Amino acid sequence: MQPDLSRFSVNQITTPNWSMAQAIEGYAGQGVGGIACWRNYVADYGVERTARHIRDAGLWVASLCTSAWLNAATEADYRAAIEENRRILDTAAAMGAPCVVMVVGGLPAGCKDIMGQRARVRDALHALAPHARAVGVRLGLEPLHPMYAGDRSVLNSIKDANDLCDELGDAAGLVPDVYHCWWDPCFEAELRRAGPDRILTFHYCDWLVPTRNLRDRGMVGDGVVDIPRIRGWLDDIGYAGKFELELFSELDWWNRPGEETVRIGIERCAPHVGPLPAIAKDQS
Amino acid sequence: MQPDLSRFSVNQITTPNWSMAQAIEGYAGQGVGGIACWRNYVADYGVERTARHIRDAGLWVASLCTSAWLNAATEADYRAAIEENRRILDTAAAMGAPCVVMVVGGLPAGCKDIMGQRARVRDALHALAPHARAVGVRLGLEPLHPMYAGDRSVLNSIKDANDLCDELGDAAGLVPDVYHCWWDPCFEAELRRAGPDRILTFHYCDWLVPTRNLRDRGMVGDGVVDIPRIRGWLDDIGYAGKFELELFSELDWWNRPGEETVRIGIERCAPHVGPLPAIAKDQS
Fold it and tell me: Which domain holds residue B168?
């Protein structure tokens, strides 16, 4: 029986050696429903050409990755980053991406004020919200694992992301990733708080034991994340949205042929990306 | 002017190539006030001999590191781990260590139920509390960075550690470490909630950018942790207890001569381990 992959996308960073065109063909050829795109691949191939090719291949777009970092050391560079993010929202709109995944950057050079930087990111999101609404693209808040707080993102808890969504209204949504959140004692509670409509796409991969470096994510099933349980929470809140495989894997999957990574990714994810059960389970 | 190191200890894992005797002499010789001991070094040198040597050198003991892990795969092994932890508490009492640092282990082999394992750790702490009280040694709850949740400790948030301390009363206390907690949006609030008496010893090191692997802690001042600000919170709540340098540094400090690591550690920590200011600062 063919698995139902209509809710399932692959994030193209999972097959970094594939060009934009190869990724589109490679995913569609194996029956994947959607694709999450990265800006550098889109820029190489062209925005219009990417959008047309994705449409012709019958895929939907999960997101455009990622925002420009907001950890500028000077006020002028910070304002430039805000403006760059408006252009990224425009690109997302042009290619039919429902959200831009906000990876907001770590600490500015020479800065140790993580609380100050978090306040600045909040200001930046408020500054971007009107443009996001105007172009119909949501700010996809992805809390990143605390081990990336220094150099990739100071947004490190799903609770804080939910708080920001409360403030930003329909300009924003959540992009939860099991890799970043699996350890968090409030992961379940914050997914329930978010409810089904705030979740824009839901990222799967796995946490390996041992983890060898900070780009060593595992294929679904190879680590310690309890994916069926988490999927159960999502069914329970009535989440009917997208699932996505996203692997950063410097030492393993990035070195395999894209076809193999996608094939095994489908095998592993298929049990966890199917349609919402007709009767939502009672997990309480 | 000689710095006041009376509140300052070095954790002997910082100089792993030194024997117990070398660490005692090496720290005392440079004026450090205390030492945190690891079980394997104590066992090699002997409990009584370690205790006598530390006393003769004029040092105090910050803690005994660490508990036996509680992530046993079978019920029998779990009960054996509880019993082993009672013996570790006895050892701590025999050498005048005020606490055992509880590093509780990650997930049992083959287990993906982190919430279940956290519940089990809670049960274990309650099982150990009467013995801890009986021998006058506190269970030192050290929340470990979320990146260690899989394989070193499922206790990953200072909020959860404070919740456990509320339950365990005077049988337990906190061992906060800036490396594990610096990113946590509720770090300050949870230190204020803890108050001065619950904090048993306070660990310093630094978070490096970039961080190369999961044992790549930085020397105080070399990373992005705002130590003066954190020390300010501690002064503000009236914390008059111990500070401790603890470095896991596979790629750098562990390969240097112990004398050099201790000398530079003192230089870097001295500004942050002095006496409590006469008038507590108002940080609000």
Answer: 8-272
